[in-house]
Amino acid sequence: MCSRLVAGVDVLSDPNLIAEFVVESLEHLEAVEPLLLELEKRGATDASALNEIFRAVHSIKGAAGFLGLENVSTLSHAMESLLQRLRDGVCAYRAEMADPLLRAVDALRTLLRGLPGSQGEPAAALVARLESLLEERASAAASNDAFEVACEAQRRKGHSVVRVALPARKREREKLEARLALFGERIAEPGGKGKGAVIGSPLEPDLLAEALELDASRLELVSAPVVGAIEEFPLPDPSRPLPLYFGQVAVDLGLLSDEARRQVLQTQRSSLLRRTFRETAIALRLLSPADADAVIAAQEKRLADAGQTAVEKAVPDLLPESEAVAGGEKRADTIRVSLALLDKLMNLAGELVLGRNQMRQLLESSKQVGVKEVLQSLDLVTTELQENIMNTRMQPIRVLFDRMPRLVRDIAQRLGKRVELETSGGDVELDRSIIESIADPMTHMLRNALDHGLEDPQGRAVLGKSEVGRVWVNAYHECGRVVMEVRDDGRGIDPERVKESAIARGAISREQATLLSEKDAIALIFEPGLSTASEVSDVSGRGVGMDVVRTNIQNLGGQVDVVTAVGVGTTLRIHLPLTLAIIPSLIVSVAKERFAIPQVNVVEVVRLKSEAEQVERIRSTEVLRLRGTLLPLVRLAACLEIPAPETQKRVRSNVVVLRSGPHSYGLVVDELHDNEEIVVKPASSHLADCGWYAGATILGDGRVAMILDTIGIAKRAHIRFEQVADEIARRSNDEPLAERRPARRRSLVVFANTADERFAVPLGDLLRLERVDKAQLEWIGKKPFLKHRGRAIPLVHLEDHLPVGGDSSESDEFFVLIPRLEGVEAGIVAARIVDTLESDAQPDPTQLHAPGLLGSAIVADRLTLFLDTGALLEAAGIERTEP
Amino acid sequence: MSAPAASAEQRFCTFFLGAECYGIDILTVREINRHVQLTPARGAPAAVRGFLNLRGQIVTVIDPAVQLGYAKRELLPTSRLVILKTNADLARLGLANLVTDDELAGLWIDRISDVITVAADQITPAPPDQSGRNDHLIAAIVQRNEQVIRLVEPSALLRHGASG
After folding, report:
1. pLDDT band (50, 70, 90) for residue A234
2. Per the CB < 8 Å rule, is B37 touching A390?
3. Whole-number Å distance between alpha carbons of A207 and A245
4. In A456-608, beta strands by DSSP E
């Protein structure tokens, strides 16, 4: 092992240099890890990723050698040697390399974190393992594998190496082999007879399939080209179109637009069905079969004309996104700043604000020309400066999400499960201190989902689920709070088992258990020492975890809740307080006192024209007549006991319509101001008892304003929602419906699969409703698809995802409801449509909860389950395609 | 007052509420500000007069007179806000023996007076029923030039009544 001890003890003893090295190296490793995971996942060599990994490890090694950090240097050198061979294509990436490489990343981290205090233990075993991978390769190279050398040569030219299955019939085979010669160079594979022809081609497999007029499943990528790694081989010029493709020929003949061609290519790639370009184009109805024949004829002619020179002209016209991938390396345009410095900047900006305020007071009466303008611009700049510095503390939650793939991989591997992780909402911003505090609870929740939630692959197969378990981690804003969600499609939590476990541990008595509702029983999982895992694994199941999660989240002022359906999956939700989050808010005022209302709570704003005409009383409650319904009113001034200003000038009031849990009410205020993005700060603990506020904030002009808690205000005002509801019901009985039509009335499609269960979906949520014949169904594996306008739309049966019954009538005709959802095309199967009716029924979520169900309500005298189409399709694993 | 420091002398910042003079350990004082317009604290106990923005941090302003059982202070030209250090500030400065509050808070006073240095033996326990009010908020007294200076316990002054 070569060690590059360049400098001596002087450098080594400089703690600043080492500290800098540690920070930089940790950052390198941060970047390396996802790339290694990506390599492992894709199983193919991606030269740009390899290059990036190599460079990072190389620079760690270099600096470590310079600083005389023997252990770091030895380990990174072993990594580098392996990576170098991979990068240079001397040896091919193999799945078993993933683990030692990732472990080496971990070991390097541990070593680095020990610095400068301790040099750590040498990772000899790991180094030996990495070196053994090198030696294996060395012996393979010694056998002088001509095939691999030839493949490598192709790869370095920027060519893909593809194995093409050859047809059995001699004539067809010869025809295909002739075409193969046009699009690539044949590579002789030792012992490869029967496996097909291997060629190196400048075309990507998809495009090659198109060029060869073959079903893409007959092509197998042996190794991908070295993209951008070797500068002396220029990338193909995408601006030069290849005249020989079916698609290109069709465009040239004017039978297909460029747009349509792109669409076909995309569909072909994303479709589950492996079809040729021609088949896909015909299926999409973009090309008639007759036109397709004409294209083939033209293509044959061009191929014949082009002859052997085709290879030189064979330039793949890449889709723009693949260009983007191949494009230059990623470089974050950020620099490191210490937190102490940020805090200091924040304080200084505060001082500046103070100074500005004093200056304003001094110069307010100044007659000097131009002073006002200067003050104004100083004002703006100061405010903006302060805001921006405050924003520097905010971080997107992505920093947390980025750590998850590795965690999920490691746990899944240890558990012998296959798991796919999907994250969304990485842009949601939180104060970095909150992000740090939720990292551990999130880890616990992920572990739980993988260990307890997801079944093992065999178990899933038996249940007819995909062997790959799915876990979703989402972050989003809701009702002014940030919600973090960990969802799995595993076995769900069985309330009976939780009860049994709690009884066994003596947490509750058997009598208490019988009295517990399902929801309360499931909530027992948050009690200390309770676990439903039948055996303790080394990942989790020791009964510590969920109670710790809850405690941690509660310490942050948040809540955790759980939604589960046996056999369908479990969702754990963390609601984080507004505190420190930035939220858009509406600023209102009463008697010149300003308050902020989180925008998410605001439904609409109504200006009162005439109080006498629009406002009336139902016993103690003032109500506003609004579009035929009655809205209870709360006067903010009276509610908060704000005295009216002495110069009582009649102001025209405004009503802010607020959502508060399941109810709505109107808040009467004097004035509406702008919407402001506010940074939420905790309200003073002196205000904790009143419960009227969700926090406090500093407005743009530097004044403090309280943030109203819409639920707290409703409680404070003692709104009698039930009285108002009764009154609405009474009036709608008394008077013609058309005049007193409640605002929330909407059209519902009510359908049923069995005699006793009814479902409803708002008509507005549906894109189409189709009557379908069984013959239109197509099955791919166990999954049904509807052939519709040349597309295959996945179908969802409710009974597969919800605890409901399925249609047992063997009818040939049924209905498919296609929800109106961005980027999702899928159908929900309905055996029969019961009715389409107008109803103001609101689903009550407390009765039932499962992903895909909004709740239940009485519609036309029957208990009806309302579907949440988005959640249902997500639960069914229908993927959103990017528009 | 927290146990008198080992050093023989303590320094107090003195101020007036009406005609009465009070003192507060100067080590607990962060800064003294002129009055700015406060945001009223609707729903808070009477002693909480409002909030102000101190360079990006929200300060709760407490009226010590209300805590001591007197009427609310009116705003006077001499009125000042004595902003106190938080417990975290004190801990950072190695003054963990002093207690104020976890939140940033200020006292609304009528007039600021001198900083006095008092020898430990000059501090005497407050006589009971000295004013007939919330005397437990007065930790001790000092006699200075015919003037009785009541030394306040900041943590009690800030929190008393907040729960009631």
Report:
1. very low
2. no
3. 8
4. 468-478, 481-488, 559-565, 569-576, 582-590, 593-598, 602-607
A156, two tokens: 């370095």
Q: What would the DSSP string read from start to end of B58-71?
A: EEEEE-HHHHTTSP
pLDDT above 80: residue A323: no
pLDDT of residue A869: 84
Angle, helices A70-88/A98-114, rounded to nearest 10 degrees: 150
Whole-number Å distance between alpha carbons of A715 and A709: 10
C-alpha–C-alpha distance, residues A734 and A736, integer Å: 7
The DSSP bridge partners found for residue A604 are A657
Looking at residue A308, what is its pLDDT?
36
CA distance B53 to B58: 5
Task: Tell me the shortest Cα–Cα distance from B102 to chain A, in angstroms.
Answer: 10
Query: Rounded distance, CA A633 to CA A826, Å?
Result: 42
Alpha carbon of A720: minimum distance to chain B alpha carbons (Å) = 22
**CA Rg value for chain A:** 33
Residue A354: per-residue pLDDT: 66
Q: Is pTM, for the whole model, over 0.80? A: no
Mutate to test the interface with A, among B33, B49, B53, B163 (most CBs of A within 10 A): B53
Own/partner contacts of A545-552, CB < 8 Å, gap of 24 or more, are: A545/A444, A545/A447, A545/A448, A546/A444, A546/A448, A548/A440, A548/A441, A548/A444, A549/A441, A549/A444, A549/A445, A550/A526, A552/A437, A552/A438, A552/A440, A552/A441
Which of A271, A294, A291, A269 lies closest to A790 in space, CA to CA? Answer: A271
pLDDT band at A215 (very low <50, low <70, confident <90, very high): confident
Nearest CB partner across the interface for B42, out of A350, A642, A698: A642
Give me the residue from B43, B52, B102 closest to A687, CB to CB.
Answer: B43
> Which chain B residue has its CA at the smallest distance from A683's CA?
B58
> What integer pLDDT is reported at residue A355 of this predicted model?
73
The Cβ of residue A631 has, within 10 Å, a number of other Cβ atoms equal to 24
Residue-wise DSSP of chain B: --S--SSSEEEEEEEEETTEEEEEEGGGEEEEEE--PPBP-TTS-TTEEEEEEETTEEEEEE-HHHHTTSPPPPP-TT-EEEEEPPHHHHHHTT-TT----SS-EEEEESEEEEEEEEEGGGEEEPPTTSSSS-GGGEEEEEEETTEEEEEE-HHHHHHTTT--
Q: What would the pLDDT profile of A698-755 be if each residue is shown by its tens digit?
A: 887 778 999 998 888 988 888 888 788 888 777 777 654 444 344 467 788 889 888 7
Closest chain A residue to the Cα of B34, Cα to Cα: A358
Query: With 60 as the cut, is the pLDDT of residue A23 above it?
Result: yes
For A701, which residue in chain B has the nearest alpha carbon?
B53
What pLDDT score was predicted for residue A744?
60
| Contacts (Cβ under 8 Å, ≥6 apart) of A535 | A541
Is the C-alpha dihedral spanning A869, A872, A873, A874 positive or negative? positive
Mean of all residue pLDDT scores within chain A = 75
**pLDDT category of residue A142 using cuts at 50, 70 and 90:** very low
Instruction: Say how many C-beta atoms besides its own lie within 10 A of residue A337's C-beta.
Output: 10
pLDDT reading at A243 higher than 70 = no
Mean pLDDT of B8-22: 91
Distance from CA of A679 to the nearest CA of B (A): 10
Q: How much is the pLDDT for A669?
A: 92
Is B43 at the interface with chain A, CB within 8 A?
Answer: yes
Average pLDDT, integer, range A393-410: 83
Judged against a pLDDT cut of 70, whether residue A494 lies above it is answered with: yes
Q: What's the confidence (pLDDT) of residue B78?
A: 92
| Amino acid at the residue A176 | L
pLDDT at A312: 35
Kind of pairing, strands A593-598 and A704-708? Answer: parallel
* Residue B44 contacts A, CB cutoff 8 Å: yes
